[in-house]
User: Which sequence fits this backbone?
């Protein structure tokens, strides 16, 4: 399950979270609007944009990207998208990039060719931020996201106890809904009822975010199933095309496969759609 939905909603609920992660004054969030604008040239959205209420150069525009998987080209893609955005919207503000990784091991490090952009870059490792015990509620939710499932049962009641101290009951219920949805994210192999029983939740409601996760999971499953079927058809075509006298390179070009994959099939090696998608799924 992708984490985009969780962090988009988390930044909406707690805009001060960005500045807490950066170790800066959370009150800065008051002068920002959180957004997620599309880059038309790439049909791509940032995980988050913190847009200042003014166009003063000194009020930073923050580009936020959250990464929970290994992506060797992470920084190449990120800065490509940023410069496409700058060209499209032409903001007057100075800007900063905040790359948020689940752990340090997922950071591929800034390529040498982009080294001059390092002053624009701030990097946060969520598992290191989450090591602290006395965290504000927003960072407590982040901790719930990044810690192993077996630790969640210990952290959950602590977080709920803090939320119970919020005087605004409507806000308290909204945050609890969010936390309960994070539990669903952490325990995808369990039903809503099983999770509610495990964590002693009286009223695990079908929140909008919960429904978004279910819909996202179904969509991903359908997309993967369709992709597997398409790849299987291509793999089955390789022997027939080889028999017709086409070269490995010609077959790879015609089917949209890598030459190395066609070579493996030609050598009689077993290649499955699952193995190929496992290498390339986001």
Assistant:
């Amino acid at each position: 399950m992708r984490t985009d939905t969780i962090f988009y909603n988390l930044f909406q609920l707690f805009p001060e979270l960005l500045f807490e992660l950066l170790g800066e004054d959370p009150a800065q969030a008051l002068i920002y609007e959180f957004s997620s604008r599309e880059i038309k040239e790439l049909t791509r959205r940032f995980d988050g944009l913190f847009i200042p209420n003014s166009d003063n150069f000194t009020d930073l525009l923050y580009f936020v990207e959250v990464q929970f998987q290994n992506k060797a080209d992470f920084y190449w893609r990120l800065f490509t998208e940023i410069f496409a955005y700058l060209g499209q919207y032409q903001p007057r503000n100075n800007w900063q990039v905040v790359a948020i990784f689940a752990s340090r091991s997922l950071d591929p490090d800034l390529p040498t060719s982009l080294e001059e952009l390092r002053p624009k870059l701030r990097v946060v490792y969520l598992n290191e931020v989450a090591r602290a015990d006395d965290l504000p509620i927003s960072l407590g939710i982040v901790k719930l996201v990044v810690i192993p499932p077996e630790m969640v049962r210990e952290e959950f009641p602590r977080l709920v106890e803090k939320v119970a101290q919020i005087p605004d009951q409507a806000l308290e219920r909204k945050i609890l809904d969010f936390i309960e949805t994070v539990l669903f994210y952490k325990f995808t192999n369990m039903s809503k009822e099983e999770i509610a029983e495990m964590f002693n939740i009286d009223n695990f409601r079908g929140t909008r975010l919960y429904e978004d996760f279910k819909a996202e999971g179904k969509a991903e499953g359908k997309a993967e199933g369709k992709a597997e079927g398409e790849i299987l058809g291509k793999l089955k075509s390789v022997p027939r095309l080889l028999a017709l006298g086409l070269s490995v390179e010609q077959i790879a070009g015609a089917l949209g496969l890598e030459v190395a994959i066609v070579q493996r099939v030609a050598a009689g090696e077993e290649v499955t759609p699952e193995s190929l998608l496992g290498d390339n799924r986001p």
Q: What stands out?
A: The mean pLDDT is 83. Residues 208-243 form the longest helix (36 residues). The CA atoms of residues 17 and 183 lie 20 Å apart.
